């Protein structure tokens, strides 16, 4: 008899190690960022270098009083402490980096490489936040979110070319959201309080956090709820005490607040963030022109809409003047449907959407909004973009237009191919990723649906979406090529005004889409 051979059992597949795979995504992004070190850098580069010098050369009691440079310290204390930590290493590499006088406009290779690499290392915080939010997802969704966040062209343009630390700060935000989604409300509130002490502009989402935590964590009966509210309040107060305590001790809180909230700046930033106020300004200009032609005496405003350094408030020739209080009220009104929904149905799975919507409201209606603030809602929305086909379509258009709105930040000719290539590559990766994610799901949904939609398969954005994307191409061609040929140096503001207005349409679409989702959910 022939000996019976037992069949060989197949080895079970090795369990995936998402964090190790995520490291490869981070390493690939870091290689690209290292190649961009010699590229363009904005005045923000000197701003942060000067903050290194302030926090290293001066005692804490003088940090918010120093006026050696126009770029005074105007971030909250935790960010100042962060700069102080970086200055220790900067001083070891090149002492002139942190010299208050000799370091002004210092541009050696040592300061260039140090500050660029410091941003890359600070992105590890973003990496941790992304990992926490995606570790329980399937592999396809994980990798798609990693592409959208870790390889975000907006972060490359803003942080690693223009120069800032948004990836680090957004990482803290994502960590906070991950705790809230897990139901760990105290940790989520603690981390968000820490974020506010790093950059106060994230406070736009504070009403959402307050209402959600009050309803979801504290609303548990009178005694238990009061005790939980006390614990939550004590944690937040403790964080702010650590941040601001030294300045309270020195009697400097008024000066710190004055630096952090310079409301004397103009309504709009120098590059005209694509928000609601673009339409308001253009309408004022058009009305002033038409009324002038009709014989009315319209006094042209002397001050600027885009004051970057503290000055007069933004003037209007015809329409009512806009004050910081006006913008604050508008933001709260826009936020109110979200706050009502968060109170009635405080579900952890929705908190990321609500926070993203809050930052969209702040971007659209806020005072002196920077175009870079689009990152505050684009990055969180990447987390929910993989949840449904509608979310993916919305994110594809929003991410594309938001990235394009950052083009004016890189205005030198040698950076033009870089920003175009980053946008095109990002759009292609989004398209391929969303198509892979939703192709099978769409086929199943169509098979079960009573309506026949045989022609609509896979990831599609429709003719309206395509028309809008083609419009971006036409706007760019007209501003970059046709305007210099036809008008030369005349009316140089038209390309920026045109692109900001067109991008504002996309941002308004996103706001309406998110609002509709909140109302329907």
Automatic annotation (TrEMBL):
It is an enzyme of class 2 (transferase). It holds the Pfam family Alg6_Alg8. It comes from the Eukaryota. The keyword Glycosyltransferase applies. The chain crosses the membrane at residues 21-40, 113-131, 143-158, 164-180, 192-214, 226-249, 270-296, 316-339, 351-367, 420-439, 460-481, 493-512. Its EC number is 2.4.1.-. The keyword DNA-binding does not apply. Pathway: Protein modification; protein glycosylation. GO terms for molecular function: dolichyl pyrophosphate Glc1Man9GlcNAc2 alpha-1,3-glucosyltransferase activity. It is found in: Endoplasmic reticulum membrane. It is a multi-pass membrane protein. Keywords: Endoplasmic reticulum, Glycosyltransferase, Membrane, Transferase, Transmembrane, Transmembrane helix. GO terms for cellular component: endoplasmic reticulum membrane. One of its GO terms (biological process) is protein N-linked glycosylation. Belongs to the ALG6/ALG8 glucosyltransferase family. This is Alpha-1,3-glucosyltransferase. It comes from Prunus dulcis.
């Amino acid at each position: 008899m022939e000996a019976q051979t037992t069949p060989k059992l197949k080895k079970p597949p090795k369990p995936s190690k998402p964090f190790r795979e995520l490291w490869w995504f981070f390493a690939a992004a870091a290689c690209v960022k290292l190649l961009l070190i010699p590229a363009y850098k904005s005045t923000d580069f000197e701003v942060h270098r000067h903050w290194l010098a302030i926090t290293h050369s001066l005692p804490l009691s003088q940090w918010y009083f120093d006026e050696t440079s126009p770029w005074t310290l105007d971030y909250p204390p935790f960010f100042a402490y962060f700069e102080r930590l970086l200055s220790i290493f900067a001083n070891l590499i090149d002492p002139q980096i942190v010299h208050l006088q000799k370091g002004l406009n210092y541009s050696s290779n040592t300061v260039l490489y140090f500050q660029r690499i410091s941003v890359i290392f600070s992105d590890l915080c973003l990496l941790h936040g992304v990992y926490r939010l995606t570790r329980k997802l399937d592999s396809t969704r994980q990798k798609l979110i990693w592409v959208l966040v870790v390889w975000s062209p907006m972060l490359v343009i803003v942080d690693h070319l223009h120069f800032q630390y948004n990836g680090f700060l957004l990482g803290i935000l994502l960590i906070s959201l991950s705790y809230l989604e897990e139901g760990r409300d105290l940790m989520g509130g603690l981390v968000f309080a820490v974020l506010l002490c790093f950059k106060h502009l994230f406070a736009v989402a504070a009403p959402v956090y307050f209402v959600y935590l009050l309803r979801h964590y504290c609303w548990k009966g009178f005694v238990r709820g009061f005790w939980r509210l006390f614990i939550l309040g004590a944690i937040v107060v403790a964080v702010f005490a650590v941040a601001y305590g030294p300045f309270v001790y020195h009697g400097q809180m008024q000066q710190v607040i004055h630096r952090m909230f310079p409301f004397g700046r103009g309504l709009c930033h120098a590059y005209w963030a694509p928000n609601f106020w673009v339409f308001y300004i253009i309408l004022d200009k058009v009305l002033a022109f038409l009324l002038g032609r009709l014989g009315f005496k319209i006094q042209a405003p002397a001050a600027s809409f885009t004051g970057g350094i503290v000055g007069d408030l933004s003037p209007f020739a015809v329409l009512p003047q806009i004050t910081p209080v006006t913008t604050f009220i508008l933001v709260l009104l826009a936020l109110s449907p979200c706050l009502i929904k968060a109170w009635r149905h405080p579900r952890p799975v929705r908190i990321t959407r609500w926070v993203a919507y809050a930052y969209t409201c702040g971007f659209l209606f806020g005072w002196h909004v920077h175009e870079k603030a689009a990152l505050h809602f684009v990055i969180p929305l990447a987390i929910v973009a993989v949840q449904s086909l509608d979310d993916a379509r919305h994110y594809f258009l929003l991410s594309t237009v938001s990235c394009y709105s950052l083009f004016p930040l890189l205005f030198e000719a040698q950076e033009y191919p870089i920003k175009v290539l980053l946008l095109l590559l990002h759009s292609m990766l989004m398209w391929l990723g969303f198509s892979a994610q939703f192709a099978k799901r769409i086929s199943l949904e169509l098979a079960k649906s009573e309506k026949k939609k045989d022609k609509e398969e896979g990831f599609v954005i429709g003719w309206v979406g395509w028309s809008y994307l083609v419009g971006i191409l036409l706007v760019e061609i007209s501003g970059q090529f046709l305007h210099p040929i036809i008008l030369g140096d005349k009316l140089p503001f038209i390309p920026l005004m045109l692109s900001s207005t067109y991008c504002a349409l996309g941002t308004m679409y996103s706001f309406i889409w998110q609002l509709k989702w909140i109302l329907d959910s």
